[in-house]
Amino acid sequence: MAGFVIAVDGPAASGKGTVSAGLARLYDLPMLDTGLLYRAVGVAAARAGGNLDDPADAGAAARALDLEALHDPALRTREAGEAASRVAVHPEVRAALLDLQRAFAARGPGAVIDGRDIGTVIAPDAPAKLFVTASPQVRAERRWRQLLGQGEAVEYEAVLADIRRRDERDSGRAAAPLVRAADAVLLDTSEMTIDEAADAARRIVEAARARWETSRGANPTTP
Prior knowledge:
Layout: E1 4-9, H1 16-27, E2 31-33, H2 34-47, H3 55-63, H4 78-87, H5 91-105, E3 110-115, H6 118-122, E4 128-133, H7 136-149, H8 156-172, E5 185-188, H9 194-215
Parallel strand pairs: 1-3, 1-4, 2-3, 4-5
Helix pairs in contact: 1-9, 2-3, 2-4, 3-5, 4-8, 7-8
Protein backbone atom coordinates (compact mmCIF):
# COMPACT_ATOMS: atom_id res chain seq x y z
CA MET A 1 0.00 0.00 0.00
CA ALA A 2 2.12 2.86 -1.30
CA GLY A 3 -0.33 5.75 -1.05
CA PHE A 4 -1.89 7.57 1.86
CA VAL A 5 -5.01 5.58 2.70
CA ILE A 6 -7.62 6.88 5.12
CA ALA A 7 -9.78 4.10 6.55
CA VAL A 8 -13.09 5.26 8.02
CA ASP A 9 -15.20 2.69 9.83
CA GLY A 10 -18.35 2.93 11.89
CA PRO A 11 -21.98 1.86 12.24
CA ALA A 12 -24.91 2.99 10.13
CA ALA A 13 -25.73 6.73 10.12
CA SER A 14 -22.74 7.59 12.30
CA GLY A 15 -21.63 10.33 9.92
CA LYS A 16 -18.74 8.37 8.43
CA GLY A 17 -19.93 9.00 4.86
CA THR A 18 -20.03 12.76 5.35
CA VAL A 19 -16.65 12.69 7.12
CA SER A 20 -15.15 10.55 4.35
CA ALA A 21 -16.46 12.80 1.57
CA GLY A 22 -14.99 15.84 3.29
CA LEU A 23 -11.61 14.19 3.71
CA ALA A 24 -11.59 13.07 0.08
CA ARG A 25 -12.16 16.66 -1.05
CA LEU A 26 -9.58 18.05 1.37
CA TYR A 27 -6.82 15.69 0.29
CA ASP A 28 -7.95 15.33 -3.33
CA LEU A 29 -8.19 11.56 -3.03
CA PRO A 30 -10.63 9.12 -4.65
CA MET A 31 -13.31 7.82 -2.29
CA LEU A 32 -15.08 4.48 -2.08
CA ASP A 33 -18.24 4.03 -0.02
CA THR A 34 -18.12 0.28 0.49
CA GLY A 35 -21.59 0.31 2.00
CA LEU A 36 -22.91 1.03 -1.47
CA LEU A 37 -21.29 -2.17 -2.72
CA TYR A 38 -23.27 -4.23 -0.23
CA ARG A 39 -26.43 -2.23 -0.88
CA ALA A 40 -26.00 -2.90 -4.60
CA VAL A 41 -25.57 -6.63 -3.96
CA GLY A 42 -28.65 -6.74 -1.74
CA VAL A 43 -30.79 -4.82 -4.23
CA ALA A 44 -29.56 -6.94 -7.15
CA ALA A 45 -30.26 -10.18 -5.29
CA ALA A 46 -33.75 -9.01 -4.35
CA ARG A 47 -34.54 -7.88 -7.90
CA ALA A 48 -33.43 -11.27 -9.20
CA GLY A 49 -35.89 -12.95 -6.86
CA GLY A 50 -33.12 -14.35 -4.69
CA ASN A 51 -33.16 -15.03 -0.96
CA LEU A 52 -31.00 -12.44 0.80
CA ASP A 53 -30.34 -14.92 3.61
CA ASP A 54 -29.12 -17.59 1.20
CA PRO A 55 -25.32 -17.46 0.77
CA ALA A 56 -25.55 -18.85 -2.76
CA ASP A 57 -28.06 -16.26 -3.99
CA ALA A 58 -26.24 -13.37 -2.34
CA GLY A 59 -22.83 -14.61 -3.51
CA ALA A 60 -24.02 -14.87 -7.11
CA ALA A 61 -25.25 -11.27 -7.00
CA ALA A 62 -21.90 -10.12 -5.59
CA ARG A 63 -19.86 -11.89 -8.25
CA ALA A 64 -22.01 -10.35 -11.00
CA LEU A 65 -21.91 -6.82 -9.55
CA ASP A 66 -21.51 -4.01 -12.07
CA LEU A 67 -19.99 -0.88 -10.52
CA GLU A 68 -22.35 1.24 -12.60
CA ALA A 69 -25.05 -0.03 -10.25
CA LEU A 70 -23.60 2.19 -7.51
CA HIS A 71 -25.29 5.17 -9.16
CA ASP A 72 -28.78 3.69 -8.67
CA PRO A 73 -30.89 5.99 -6.44
CA ALA A 74 -32.60 2.91 -5.04
CA LEU A 75 -29.43 2.17 -3.05
CA ARG A 76 -30.20 5.12 -0.74
CA THR A 77 -33.47 3.71 0.56
CA ARG A 78 -34.20 2.16 3.93
CA GLU A 79 -34.88 -1.20 2.27
CA ALA A 80 -31.48 -1.15 0.56
CA GLY A 81 -29.76 -0.54 3.89
CA GLU A 82 -31.53 -3.49 5.44
CA ALA A 83 -30.69 -5.66 2.42
CA ALA A 84 -27.03 -4.67 2.66
CA SER A 85 -26.83 -5.71 6.29
CA ARG A 86 -28.40 -9.09 5.48
CA VAL A 87 -26.12 -9.99 2.56
CA ALA A 88 -22.98 -8.66 4.30
CA VAL A 89 -23.05 -11.54 6.79
CA HIS A 90 -22.20 -14.06 4.06
CA PRO A 91 -18.50 -14.91 3.61
CA GLU A 92 -19.23 -15.56 -0.09
CA VAL A 93 -20.29 -11.94 -0.57
CA ARG A 94 -17.37 -10.48 1.35
CA ALA A 95 -14.89 -12.66 -0.57
CA ALA A 96 -16.35 -11.57 -3.92
CA LEU A 97 -15.92 -7.88 -3.04
CA LEU A 98 -12.58 -8.15 -1.23
CA ASP A 99 -10.25 -7.81 -4.23
CA LEU A 100 -12.20 -4.88 -5.64
CA GLN A 101 -11.89 -2.96 -2.38
CA ARG A 102 -8.22 -3.77 -1.89
CA ALA A 103 -7.43 -2.74 -5.45
CA PHE A 104 -9.08 0.62 -4.78
CA ALA A 105 -7.00 1.04 -1.63
CA ALA A 106 -3.82 0.31 -3.57
CA ARG A 107 -4.27 3.23 -6.01
CA GLY A 108 -1.18 5.39 -6.43
CA PRO A 109 -1.83 8.57 -4.42
CA GLY A 110 -4.01 6.85 -1.86
CA ALA A 111 -7.72 6.76 -1.15
CA VAL A 112 -10.46 7.39 1.36
CA ILE A 113 -12.50 4.27 2.04
CA ASP A 114 -15.44 4.01 4.40
CA GLY A 115 -17.23 0.95 5.64
CA ARG A 116 -17.27 -1.44 8.55
CA ASP A 117 -14.12 -3.54 8.11
CA ILE A 118 -11.74 -1.18 6.32
CA GLY A 119 -9.21 -0.71 9.09
CA THR A 120 -9.33 -4.36 10.14
CA VAL A 121 -9.64 -6.32 6.87
CA ILE A 122 -9.52 -4.23 3.70
CA ALA A 123 -6.67 -1.85 4.57
CA PRO A 124 -5.19 -2.95 7.90
CA ASP A 125 -1.97 -1.04 7.12
CA ALA A 126 -3.73 2.26 6.37
CA PRO A 127 -1.71 5.18 7.81
CA ALA A 128 -4.88 6.92 9.04
CA LYS A 129 -7.77 5.11 10.70
CA LEU A 130 -10.92 6.60 12.17
CA PHE A 131 -13.83 4.88 13.87
CA VAL A 132 -16.79 7.22 13.58
CA THR A 133 -19.75 6.58 15.84
CA ALA A 134 -22.73 8.19 17.59
CA SER A 135 -25.47 7.01 19.92
CA PRO A 136 -28.21 4.82 18.38
CA GLN A 137 -30.80 7.53 19.08
CA VAL A 138 -28.79 10.23 17.30
CA ARG A 139 -28.06 7.96 14.35
CA ALA A 140 -31.71 6.96 14.08
CA GLU A 141 -32.81 10.60 14.03
CA ARG A 142 -30.29 11.41 11.30
CA ARG A 143 -31.43 8.50 9.17
CA TRP A 144 -35.09 9.26 9.85
CA ARG A 145 -34.70 12.87 8.68
CA GLN A 146 -32.75 11.70 5.63
CA LEU A 147 -35.50 9.26 4.67
CA LEU A 148 -38.21 11.88 5.17
CA GLY A 149 -36.23 14.19 2.91
CA GLN A 150 -36.24 11.48 0.26
CA GLY A 151 -40.01 11.21 0.49
CA GLU A 152 -40.15 7.99 2.50
CA ALA A 153 -42.92 7.90 5.10
CA VAL A 154 -41.45 6.12 8.13
CA GLU A 155 -41.74 6.43 11.89
CA TYR A 156 -38.69 7.36 13.98
CA GLU A 157 -39.25 4.31 16.23
CA ALA A 158 -39.08 2.00 13.21
CA VAL A 159 -35.81 3.56 12.08
CA LEU A 160 -34.36 3.22 15.60
CA ALA A 161 -35.34 -0.46 15.62
CA ASP A 162 -33.64 -0.88 12.22
CA ILE A 163 -30.47 0.79 13.51
CA ARG A 164 -30.30 -1.44 16.59
CA ARG A 165 -30.99 -4.57 14.52
CA ARG A 166 -28.27 -3.66 12.02
CA ASP A 167 -25.80 -2.90 14.80
CA GLU A 168 -26.39 -6.33 16.31
CA ARG A 169 -26.12 -8.07 12.94
CA ASP A 170 -23.02 -6.14 11.82
CA SER A 171 -21.18 -6.60 15.11
CA GLY A 172 -22.18 -10.21 15.59
CA ARG A 173 -21.50 -11.66 12.15
CA ALA A 174 -18.72 -14.24 11.83
CA ALA A 175 -17.24 -12.71 8.66
CA ALA A 176 -15.41 -9.41 9.22
CA PRO A 177 -17.63 -8.04 11.99
CA LEU A 178 -17.92 -4.34 12.70
CA VAL A 179 -15.18 -3.65 15.23
CA ARG A 180 -12.89 -0.74 15.95
CA ALA A 181 -9.30 -1.44 14.87
CA ALA A 182 -6.84 -1.28 17.75
CA ASP A 183 -5.06 1.70 16.14
CA ALA A 184 -8.17 3.56 14.97
CA VAL A 185 -8.97 6.92 16.56
CA LEU A 186 -12.50 7.11 17.96
CA LEU A 187 -14.61 10.03 16.72
CA ASP A 188 -17.99 10.29 18.46
CA THR A 189 -20.17 12.71 16.49
CA SER A 190 -23.23 12.50 18.76
CA GLU A 191 -22.90 16.11 19.95
CA MET A 192 -21.14 17.51 16.88
CA THR A 193 -22.32 19.56 13.96
CA ILE A 194 -21.18 18.54 10.48
CA ASP A 195 -18.50 21.24 10.53
CA GLU A 196 -17.27 20.20 13.98
CA ALA A 197 -17.04 16.55 12.92
CA ALA A 198 -15.19 17.52 9.75
CA ASP A 199 -12.67 19.60 11.70
CA ALA A 200 -12.11 16.84 14.26
CA ALA A 201 -11.56 14.31 11.47
CA ARG A 202 -9.11 16.65 9.73
CA ARG A 203 -7.05 17.02 12.90
CA ILE A 204 -6.96 13.24 13.38
CA VAL A 205 -5.84 12.69 9.80
CA GLU A 206 -3.27 15.50 9.91
CA ALA A 207 -1.61 13.88 12.92
CA ALA A 208 -1.59 10.52 11.17
CA ARG A 209 -0.23 12.02 7.95
CA ALA A 210 2.58 13.77 9.81
CA ARG A 211 3.64 10.43 11.33
CA TRP A 212 3.35 8.71 7.95
CA GLU A 213 5.40 11.32 6.12
CA THR A 214 8.05 11.34 8.85
CA SER A 215 8.35 7.57 8.58
CA ARG A 216 8.90 7.95 4.83
CA GLY A 217 11.43 10.73 5.26
CA ALA A 218 9.11 13.36 3.75
CA ASN A 219 8.28 16.85 4.97
CA PRO A 220 4.75 17.10 6.37
CA THR A 221 2.53 19.61 4.62
CA THR A 222 -0.84 21.03 5.55
CA PRO A 223 -3.56 21.50 2.91
